[in-house]
Model the fold of this input.
Amino acid sequence: MADLSGKVAIVTGSSRGIGRAIAERLGRDGATVIVTYVGNRDKAEEVVSAIQANGSDAAAIQVDMRSIEQVRKLFEQAIERFGKVDILVNNAAGKNIFKLTADMTEEEYNSMFDITRGVYFSLQEAAHHLADGGRIVNLSSSATAMAIPTGGAYAGCKAAIEHFSMALAKGAGCARHHG
Done:
């Protein structure tokens, strides 16, 4: 069990599932947690209550990861409310669509890659705003290592996130180190 007292974490897509489990664990470890949701405020508030019941602070912030403006505002709101951000967990996934390439519509493709674009710009915000010693965790999928006939677009989204992670880890685009 890590001691994350004094740390502030943003967990995207944390009103349910894996994101909720991550948010609650960070809270149990002492972090202040920003729970993000796109549509179900009640579920997000349940997570906030669970975190607070374990002794950590938490807040729910609505953000649609497909909107770069909302992603930027998320970081602004987090810093306004809690003074800093130490941890970013990119968990938001949207709807995962598995279809043959020949059958994928432009709208379906865009719905997945718009989330991936949001992840990229959340990393940009983290590069500008994460406190020294901060941490970023990006969730992906084992589908990137498999050839699933209906998984081309889905695996492509996740592979992009993996490459964003590798580039940022090597310092590419890190404003604090280049500016």
Notes: The chain has six helices and five strands. Helices lie at 17-28, 41-53, 68-82, 106-129, 152-169, 175-178. The chain has one domain: 8-173.
